[in-house]
Amino acid sequence: MGTIIITVGAISGITGILAFLLTLAKNTIGNYGEVIININDDEDHVVDGGTTLLSALIDEKIFIPSACGGKGSCGYCKVKVNEGAGPILPTELGYLTPEDKKENVRLSCQVKVKNDFKIEIPEELFNVQEYEGKVSKIVDLTPTIKHLTFDLKEGEIDFKAGQYVQLRAPEYKGNDEEVYRAYSIASSPSKRDQLELIIGYVEEGIATTYVHHHLEEDEEVLFNGPYGDFFYQDTDREMVMVAIGTGMAPILSILYHMVENNINRKATFYFGARYLEDLFFVEELQEIEKKLPNFKFIPSLSRAKEDDNWTGEIGRVTDAIEKYMESGENKEAYLCGSPRMIDSTVELLKEKGMQEELIFYDKFE
Amino acid sequence: MEGLNPFVVFFASIFTNNMILTNFLGMCSFIAVSGEIKTSLGLGQAVTFVLTFTTVLNYFIYHYVLVPLGLEYLRFIIFIISIAAFVQLVEMIVERYLPNLYYALGIFLPLITVNCAILGVSLFMVIRDYNMIVSLLFGLGSGIGWTLAIVALAGIRKRLKYAKVPKGLEGPGITIIITGLMALAFVGFSGIVQIQ
């Protein structure tokens, strides 16, 4: 019994003294006090020194993308540090390209904040957060396209009409890697506790297979966002919107935004599908047409079948634009869909006299 | 070990009983950080510093705490704890006051915590029953010997960049072979003094 007490006492005593010394050192030598991180020459954030830049920014609710969680093994958490970081550490070398080094780009999980910093972060990252959601509704729009509604478990998402989120597809039977895939938000930016996505099925697509074959109502999902520089521009120009398939999502968001804010700009939405069964949200869009007198919806079928009794446009979206749009001058365009459709549409719009800077697009690849 | 000349132990620990080249202790950082002469010299200095002070620290803990209490068998766990705490302390000091050394060593500094050369020296000191002065010089000498070995290896590796190394042996493979050759060369010193 005596030996046990002596043993435990001795080890505890020595460990205790060392722990005391370390704590003392941490609060004196390791204490860097408060330091200031200046972001984009604009905002000053006061943080406790001594931690990594990544965790200091997370404490300030600024989420830098990081897949490995600060272990220095993914190389995603790059941030431009203009002042304060000191020389590049050996642990960063493997992830920085020669351009990165020239541009003062550093791995924020390795750089420690010990003095005042000046950093640059893309504006859109300020808003990016991770969200947990619950699937509240799944509706089949066409045989290959589903409309999903998620309720956010907590917090609100603040996005611009046209932006996208990254949805996480977890591991499931037949897929052993976790992936994130981008999907445009189809709901109105004013609905901040809910999110709607339109997701098409892609043969052997990891995320689309997950959504179409595994995801059920009431299940939980994880996504982050919002991202993207494709969004509604607040001008008075006439709008030309072009989409095919799931590319309708960001356009819908823009239209909801216009309806809610009573923005009655002249706008035409050219939507392309193959068969009648591939058309969706037609009634929804006709409803919007009633609310926005200057808005016109022009669906076009490229391969209408005999028994579809289709009386609308026939051909590709570019054919419809060719037919209805006389000139592209003083108009702006929002294109969303496959790269092929976008490339040919951009070509046509430029021919019609539209300025290239006024053609905004989001290529779904 | 009465009458052991401290300076004999000091030189022996550098050359004939080199921690790396005769005992093969402290290999992981020896191989990982030997790419640059400057960095390896920095790590060598850190190891020397830590070795000298932990050996003395452990000497006092062993002879003034563990032996009187009859707890010699606890030396492994106690030595590990005291080395870990000491290294962390050194890391904090280096990070604050010697930023250049910190930038050169970066993440490798905590590696010293698990550098077996350091635990090895403390244990040899106990096994060989060295007194205070001898232990101090043994620690210092072992550190210098370790530094010598890693700087020499870094120098060789620098030249190696221009050599045609077989694909499968690039990096650690050829490094271990070179370490073996260096150890053979150091065996040549073994006739001078012997402490084991």
From TrEMBL, chain A:
GO terms for molecular function: iron-sulfur cluster binding; oxidoreductase activity. The keyword rRNA-binding does not apply. Pfam families: FAD_binding_6, Fer2, NAD_binding_1. Coiled coil: none annotated. Keywords: FAD, Flavoprotein, Iron, Membrane, Transmembrane, Transmembrane helix, Transport. Residues 33-125 form the 2Fe-2S ferredoxin-type domain. This is 2Fe-2S iron-sulfur cluster binding domain-containing protein. CDD domains: fer2. SUPFAM superfamilies: 2Fe-2S ferredoxin-like, Ferredoxin reductase-like, C-terminal NADP-linked domain, Riboflavin synthase domain-like. It comes from the Bacteria. Residues 128-233 form the FAD-binding FR-type domain. The chain crosses the membrane at residues 6-25, 239-259.
TrEMBL record, chain B:
Its main location: membrane. It is a multi-pass membrane protein. Signal peptide: none annotated. Belongs to the NqrDE/RnfAE family. Keywords: Cell membrane, Electron transport, Membrane, Translocase, Transmembrane, Transmembrane helix, Transport. The complex is composed of six subunits: RnfA, RnfB, RnfC, RnfD, RnfE and RnfG. This is Ion-translocating oxidoreductase complex subunit A. The gene is rnfA. The keyword Transport applies. HAMAP family: RsxA_RnfA. The chain crosses the membrane at residues 6-33, 40-61, 73-94, 101-127, 133-154, 174-195. Part of a membrane-bound complex that couples electron transfer with translocation of ions across the membrane. The keyword Chaperone does not apply. It comes from the Bacteria. GO terms for biological process: electron transport chain. It is an enzyme of class 7 (translocase). Its EC number is 7.-.-.-. It is found in: Cell membrane; Endomembrane system. One of its GO terms (cellular component) is endomembrane system.
